[in-house]
Amino acid sequence: MPLKQQIGNKRIIIALDGPAASGKSTTARKVAQRLGYIYIDTGAMYRSVTLKALEQGSLEVVRRSPECVSALLENISICFQGEKIFLDGRDVSLEIRDNRVSREVSFISSLKPVRDRLLEMQQEFGRERGVVMDGRDIGTVVFPDAELKIFLVADARERAKRRYLELKAKMTEGSELPDIESLEEEIKSRDRADAEREHAPLKKHPEAVEIDTSGLTIEAQVDMVCDLAREIIAGQPGR
Ligand code: CDP
Question: How far is the CA of 209 from the centre of ligand 1 (A)?
Fold first, then answer.
């Protein structure tokens, strides 16, 4: 019987955190599909704010005076439609994956006004529950009451290889494909920045279930998360 039918209408929040390219978004998307839940990629939201800063040429200004980031957040609109993300009404699903966004996103996401604004939006997206949300601080800050918290990890080299294949598959005209070594460096430096920052650092919640995805297939990861979700849903009164 499909999982969706078995679980009726008890709806929980599944928080999936972990370092860059640990398999969060692929796992979260598939878990959401199986459960009939909404999937929210919070990294894509931070990437969208970063893209906006790059497009407006305001990154250097913000670097010099971080408080200037508030101007970027005024009237910002970020929404999801299925697999796509819209920034101020424009589909930016491809642009936000660009390596120049990846290089700057940890800086933008370390800023308190950015985190506060996106936190508000993320909590609103999860208000009705029935959500799988992935990021760095979902179990610790956004939804500390999430019924299921997962922390995905994987070896850095393995993660760089995955990112390489992902970028290769999504290459657009004129975009450059970085080599695996430089991707590994970028991933490690982003992990450091995300774990060491002052506000909402990347951290495993004490209750989170850690899954090392290094040798696992996507299907195996998805099965593990869905099995844990099923157990929790079965033991929980409807919400
Ligand atoms: O896909 P990948 O793992 O490379 O990263 P992502 O999930 O798209 O997130 C991009 C960046 O956004 C991260 O490196 C963090 O700096 C930031 N981020 C965050 O600070 N908090 C979140 N909840 C999600 C992402």
Answer: 19
